[in-house]
């Protein structure tokens, strides 16, 4: 009789321990998903600002249509790449990051082209949009850093013992990080001679 009670007590303690570990992993995974939602929100803010920026630039006479078309296409592509928060694999994040990088590149080319139009740069609406776009880029960087911190916390938890046993039983897997864009380890070349 005593052995049965001891077995029941041990099983109850193991169940409580397992539930506690499982709930901890769920909370950390939810934190990762919330951080991912914040990243997507900031990218959406940028995509929304791009439309306003393009429309403002379109209003300037003689502006290069090809540059605007590339920005619009890049925005469309970046907006079409969506990731389910439950599938934050390194491959999917790289795909998302590549589409967002293409939009960043198109915006950079747009801003270089805008330099040829001093009357556009001096309009209040353009200046306001540029300030908002710069602020949004900063928010994106902060959101990505927060996301990586949440992923680090989750991955560290899901990969350490005994959480790795509980996590493996319930399908918790390590999440992917945002990584630097290819070639960003090289300093950009600045040439004012042109």
UniProtKB/TrEMBL annotation:
What is the name listed in the Swiss-Prot or TrEMBL entry for this protein?
A: LemA family protein
Q: How does it sit in the membrane?
A: Single-pass membrane protein
Keywords, sorted A to Z: Membrane, Transmembrane, Transmembrane helix
Instruction: State whether keyword Oxidoreductase applies.
Output: no
Q: Which GO terms describe its cellular component?
A: membrane
The species is Chitinophaga lutea
InterPro entries with a match to the protein in the record: LemA-like_dom_sf, MamQ_LemA
Q: Record's family?
A: Belongs to the LemA family.
